[in-house]
């Protein structure tokens, strides 16, 4: 999974030379071999490296505060979302829904890497929900829909119908 | 900027160290562990940093990184990598290590848990050959890792000090004044014990917690397991076990009463929560208490443990007085009447108590008063004036359960006087808002009266010490631990043990004449007095904690009384009592997604089960199959019919019956000679593995999960027969005939094993199978020994008896009729617009909307679900029998049509759903 996320990110960033990855351990932690230095290990570490490589530092936040918020959600993704249990899922979705109540993106008003990776991590939780369940998390669903429709983000994941209003008929589900 | 931290929280150590090292000015505020600082998180998260913009940071690593960045030190990529490693790899291991060391007292196991991460650090530090993790200077990674590891590395007793580079690095960190002062602030110089109260509030670590694992959404008990790979060694081992044959040891003799603890045996006392006498128990009561306890004690006897299973009716209290008034009888007459009803119901459900007693006996008075005087003597009782609710109309003080009102904690409108069903908190009846007498609906008045209280705060330290030991060494279900922990967290208060009633055990103290013991002080003592009524040597069980293990079975609402209140009574009495070692609590069983309710006539009650015509064993099977183990579950008629028809009839019963019929028809009722080939050995290994799982699970009282492995074995067996087709081979040449013999012989032996494994669940069917197979009694004692031994118990030449079907199909109309009969008036009350209970699921409204548009019909949908399942089964049977293609096609067409109708009735579009539809 992690490798597919990284390759989606590479495409999104428009990186010309595609990197070679391997994984280590039974947890399949991604590893990036590099020519000028020791290998980089870990999804977040590699993703941040790619963003710097592509000279898009704004994706990591444009102030100390927003950089901290981005890092926090990236960490949240790999510690809380990955491997969460069914009970956790509800709490996570509820919390995110509340958090996103007054925000367009994870780090406020700007699209960042936190949106990309939180989207990747939320996707498996949300595909299994019924429409009614999704409707309990309107803010989260609005953000999710917004991100999956952002150009170039979705790549390896199928689109999910998250919002239903009366314009759509039941055929969409 | 404001930083919120709490004492004893290891993550706060990181941020305080980072504040000191970075020198950033920041207002530090100490708060309680449970304080919710971050407004959008439902669980408390500390430390938290309130940023100037009003945003909160709640990850300790992000806070540290931010503090460093503000002070002008950007973090490098290597630094990021260490921080990510800390969060994803080190923290799960640390959480587990701290849990072991701080809560379970298993410090010796810490080094094993931390071995991986510490070795990784050692390698990196020695290879990089730099003083700090990322180079020559201190970075945020050093501060975070140093603070994370401080609690374990600074404790010499954990013996983690063998890594030279890690040690040198840690000591470099330790000389930094700032890091140590942070440690002092958070742990108060107490070391690991300083984190106890923090750790108690953390969810227990899961060993599987790691990155890149898929979310585990499936219910393990229901997901189909893929084929397990079997190694050659496993196959040989299974064949060897098989050849050993039955134990020659003497068959266990009939039970000799009284059963007493024996030297050198595992002596286990099983209790099931005492059912209250004036109610007929419903299915939820039965599965939660007596049935679960029965399965375990039957299983224990099979394992060769020395078991005593005790239960009885709880008979004192106002509810009984009231019922007596209603029926124009004396309380004693009511108890006699209902005790007999309970007794009959449990007999019908085949609950095999060693003794089923009652609490209204002389022994109860004797023992309760003795415990009371002991507690009194040791100074654990306090007097206080109590305000009590009195109903002037009914002319009496109202027992807690006779008052209803609004919960003062969560505003649930139907809280009882002693406990709120919604939030689970205990309530003092006088604290209820808008109290009402349950009998006459009048508002009661408050009166005062002098009462005795058990001084729980004075016993708290003793209790905590005992709880630590019992919960870490015994098998407590997760809900039992969690409920107990939350009780301890809220702090204990003195608890009233006397009541102004007549129908109870009299308080012997002269100042409290005319009063009786509060039922929750009195009722658990019933376990002791019932045992005393069983044998005069009851103290060999109850004052013998070194020889006896005690298992308590109950539903979760009963947990606090068994884990906190009653142990406090016994600890306070100081007479070397046997306290609970294993506390097994179920969640709730609902009825067709609503609650059982006597008053509304909803649900099946114990006395009605036998009127359904469905055998007791099938009831037991289904209740155990949906046992609310780990989460709430629901009884559903349609599901019961489905499980009976698909699991009992088509899977288990079908296999056992076929195996027996082959012996009868093809081999003149004599078990044929068996020449094991690879394929047979593989099956023996598969069956042996399922048996091992079954034993491991039942040893841990995972009753529902263990049942699944019985059904897996018959599934393996059915496949084996289907693949080898003995009914064809028997018509072939010698080799083929011999093959048919082997397959038949192995199958009938598996049937025999199944009968033993089924014994705790379905005792009658289990015995019937052994009668039909004419199986030697010793097979019962042999197979469940050790980790499980599947031996050949019906050897070649053994003559079996007459084989006949074990289960009957439950027909749709039969089930529909039963459902109507027991459905109660719930539909009527709902449409009448009564106030919906707070637990009504939120999506109700959209569902109605969908139904209105497309015409969904839930009633019809349920019927059709059943019909689809049946038709599916029919198609599968035809395919298995290799029936004519035209016949199969016709039945498949019917099936598709039914599915289409079902989709319509469920309000879905009739086109099959892309993925999920196919599997069904």
CATH C-level label of the domain at 262-369 and 523-625 in chain B? Alpha Beta
Strand arrangement within the widest β-sheet of chain A reads 1-2-3
The unreliable regions of chain B are 207-226, 825-856, 909-920
**Strand line-up across the major sheet of chain B:** 7-6-5-17-18
Mean pLDDT of chain B: 84
Overall 3D form of chain A = globular
Rg over alpha carbons of chain B: 32 Å
CATH class of chain A: Mainly Alpha
Q: Find the CATH topology of the domain at 262-369 and 523-625 in chain B.
A: Rossmann fold
Oligomer: heterodimer
| Beta-strand percentage range of chain A | 5-15%
The number of strands of chain A is: 3
What is the second-level CATH architecture of chain A? Up-down Bundle
Low-confidence stretches of chain A: 166-173
Helix content of chain B: 40-55%
**For the largest interface in this structure, which chains are involved and how many residues does each contribute?**
A-B, 50 and 49 residues
How would a crystallographer describe the biggest sheet of chain B? 5 strands, parallel
Structural class of chain B: alpha/beta
Largest sheet of chain A: 3 strands, antiparallel
Based on the coordinates given, report the CATH architecture of the domain at 262-369 and 523-625 in chain B: 3-Layer(aba) Sandwich
Structure notes:
The complex is a heterodimer of chains A (173) and B (920). Chain A has 173 residues and is mainly alpha-helical. Chain A has one domain (2-172): Up-down Bundle (Glutathione S-transferase Yfyf (Class Pi), Chain A, domain 2), CATH 1.20.1050.10. Chain A has seven helices and three strands. Chain A has helices at residues 2-13, 43-53, 64-81, 86-99, 113-126, 131-135, 138-149; strands spanning 21-24, 29-32, 40-41. Chain A has a three-stranded antiparallel beta sheet, with helices on one face. In chain B, the strands form six sheets. A five-stranded parallel beta sheet of chain B has the order 7-6-5-17-18, sandwiched between helices. In chain B, strands 2-1-3-4 form a four-stranded mixed beta sheet. A four-stranded antiparallel beta sheet of chain B has the order 9-8-13-14. By secondary structure, chain B is an alpha/beta fold. Among the domains of chain B are: 2-200, Up-down Bundle (Glutathione S-transferase Yfyf (Class Pi), Chain A, domain 2), CATH 1.20.1050.10; 262-369 and 523-625, Rossmann fold (3-Layer(aba) Sandwich); 399-443, no CATH class; 845-919. In chain B, helix 1 (10-22) packs parallel to helix 2 and helix 24 packs antiparallel against helix 26 (734-758). Chain B: It is found in: Cytoplasm. Chain B: It holds the Pfam family tRNA-synt_1g.
């Amino acid at each position: 999974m992690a490798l597919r996320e990284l390759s989606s990110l590479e495409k999104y960033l428009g990186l010309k030379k595609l990197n070679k990855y391997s994984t280590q351990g039974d947890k399949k932690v991604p590893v990036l071999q590099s020519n000028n230095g020791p290998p980089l290990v870990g999804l977040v570490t590699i993703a941040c490296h790619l963003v710097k490589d592509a000279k898009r530092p704004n994706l990591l936040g444009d102030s100390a505060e927003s950089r901290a918020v981005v890092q926090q959600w990236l960490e949240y993704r790999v510690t809380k979302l990955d491997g969460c249990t069914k009970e956790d899922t509800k709490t996570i979705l509820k919390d995110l829904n509340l958090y996103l109540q007054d925000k367009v993106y994870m780090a406020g008003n700007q699209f960042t890497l936190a949106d990309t990776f939180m989207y990747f991590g939320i996707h498996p939780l949300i595909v299994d929900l019924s429409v009614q369940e999704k409707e309990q998390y309107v803010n989260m669903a609005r953000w999710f829909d917004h991100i999956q429709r952002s150009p170039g983000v979705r790549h390896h994941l199928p689109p999910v119908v998250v919002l239903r209003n009366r314009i759509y008929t039941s055929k969409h589900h | 900027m404001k930083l919120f931290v709490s004492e004893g929280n290891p993550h706060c150590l990181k941020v305080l160290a980072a504040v000191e090292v970075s020198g950033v000015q920041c207002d530090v505020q100490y708060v309680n562990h449970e304080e919710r600082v971050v407004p959008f998180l439902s669980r408390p998260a500390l430390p938290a940093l309130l940023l100037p913009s009003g945003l909160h940071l709640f990850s300790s690593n992000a806070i540290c990184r931010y503090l460093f960045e503000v002070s002008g030190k950007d973090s490098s990529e290597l630094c990021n990598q260490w921080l990510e490693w800390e969060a994803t790899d080190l923290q799960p291991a640390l959480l587990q290590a701290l849990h072991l060391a701080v809560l379970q007292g298993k410090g010796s196991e810490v080094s094993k848990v931390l071995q991986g991460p510490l070795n990784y650090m050692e390698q990196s530090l020695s290879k990089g050959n730099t003083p700090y993790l990322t180079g020559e200077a201190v970075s945020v990674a050093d501060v975070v890792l140093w603070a994370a590891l401080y609690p374990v590395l600074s404790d010499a007793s954990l013996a983690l000090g063998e890594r030279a580079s890690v040690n040198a690095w840690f000591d470099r960190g330790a000389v930094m004044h700032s890091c140590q002062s942070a440690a002092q602030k958070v742990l108060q110089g107490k070391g690991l014990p300083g984190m106890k109260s923090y750790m108690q509030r953390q969810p227990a670590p899961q060993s599987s917690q790691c990155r890149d694992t898929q979310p585990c959404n499936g219910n393990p008990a229901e997901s189909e397991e893929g084929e397990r790979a079997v190694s050659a060694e496993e196959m040989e081992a299974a064949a060897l076990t098989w050849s050993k044959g039955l134990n020659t040891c003497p068959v266990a003799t009939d039970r000799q009463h009284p059963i007493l603890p024996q030297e050198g045996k595992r002596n286990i006392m099983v209790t099931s929560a005492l059912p209250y006498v004036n109610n007929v128990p419903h299915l939820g009561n039965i599965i939660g208490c007596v049935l679960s306890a029965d399965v375990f004690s039957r299983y224990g006897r099979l394992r060769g443990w020395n078991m005593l299973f005790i239960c009885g009716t709880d008979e004192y209290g106002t509810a009984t007085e009231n019922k007596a008034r209603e029926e124009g009888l004396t309380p004693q007459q009511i108890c006699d009447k209902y005790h007999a009803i309970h007794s009959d119901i449990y007999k019908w459900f085949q609950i095999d108590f060693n003794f089923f007693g009652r609490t209204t006996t002389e022994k109860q008075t004797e023992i309760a008063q003795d415990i009371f005087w002991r507690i009194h003597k040791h100074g654990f009782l306090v007097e206080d004036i109590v305000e009590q609710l009195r109903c002037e109309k009914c002319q009496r003080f109202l027992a807690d359960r006779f008052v209803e009102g609004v919960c003062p904690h969560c505003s649930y409108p139907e809280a009882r006087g002693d406990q709120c069903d919604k939030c689970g908190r205990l309530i003092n009846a006088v604290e209820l808002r808008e109290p009402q007498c349950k009998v006459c609906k009048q508002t009661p008045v408050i009166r005062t009266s002098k009462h005795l209280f058990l001084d729980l705060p004075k016993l708290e330290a003793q209790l905590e010490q005992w709880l630590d030991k019992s919960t870490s060494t015994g098998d407590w279900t997760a809900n039992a631990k969690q409920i107990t922990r939350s009780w301890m967290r809220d702090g204990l208060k003195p608890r009233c043990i006397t009541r102004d009633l007549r129908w109870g055990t009299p308080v012997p103290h002269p100042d409290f004449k005319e009063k009786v013991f509060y039922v929750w002080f009195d009722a658990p003592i019933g376990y002791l007095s019932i045992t005393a009524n069983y044998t005069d040597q009851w103290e060999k069980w109850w004052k013998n904690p070194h020889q006896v293990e005690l298992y308590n079975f109950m539903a979760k609402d009963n947990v606090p009384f068994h884990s906190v209140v009653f142990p406090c009574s016994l600890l306070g009495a100081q007479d070397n009592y046997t306290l609970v070692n294993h506390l097994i609590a179920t969640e709730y069983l609902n009825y067709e997604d609503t609650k059982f309710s006597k008053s509304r006539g909803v649900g099946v009650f114990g006395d009605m089960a036998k009127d359904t015509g469905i055998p007791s064993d099938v009831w037991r099977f289904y209740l155990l199959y949906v046992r609310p183990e780990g989460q709430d579950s629901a009884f559903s008629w349609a599901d019961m019919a489905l499980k009976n028809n698909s699991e009992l009839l088509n899977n288990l019963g079908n296999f056992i019956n076929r195996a027996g019929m082959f012996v009868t028809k093809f081999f003149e009722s004599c078990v044929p000679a068996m020449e094991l080939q690879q394929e047979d050995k593989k099956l023996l290994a598969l069956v042996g593995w399922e048996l091992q799982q079954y034993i491991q699970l039942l040893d841990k009282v995972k009753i529902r999960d263990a049942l699944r492995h019985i059904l897996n074995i018959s599934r393996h067996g059915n496949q084996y027969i289907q693949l080898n087709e003995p009914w064809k081979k028997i018509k072939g040449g010698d080799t083929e005939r011999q093959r048919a013999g082997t397959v038949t012989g192995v199958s009938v032996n598996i049937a025999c094993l199944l009968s033993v494994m089924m014994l705790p669940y379905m005792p009658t069917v289990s015995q019937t199978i052994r009668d039909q197979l004419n199986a030697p009694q010793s097979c019962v004692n042999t197979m469940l020994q050790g980790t499980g031994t599947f031996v050949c118990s019906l050897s070649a030449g053994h003559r079996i008896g007459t084989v006949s079907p074990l289960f009957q199909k439950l027909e749709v109309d039969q089930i529909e009729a039963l459902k109507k009969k027991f459905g109660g008036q719930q539909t009527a009350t709902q449409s009448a617009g009564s106030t919906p209970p707070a637990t009504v699921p939120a999506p109700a409204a959209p569902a109605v909307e969908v139904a209105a548009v497309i015409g969904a019909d839930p009633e019809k949908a349920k019927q059709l679900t059943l019909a689809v399942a049946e038709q599916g089964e029919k198609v599968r049977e035809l395919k298995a029998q290799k029936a004519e293609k035209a016949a199969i096609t016709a039945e498949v067409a019917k099936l598709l049509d039914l599915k289409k109708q079902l989709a319509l009735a469920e309000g879905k579009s009739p086109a099959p759903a892309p993925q999920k539809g196919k599997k069904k």
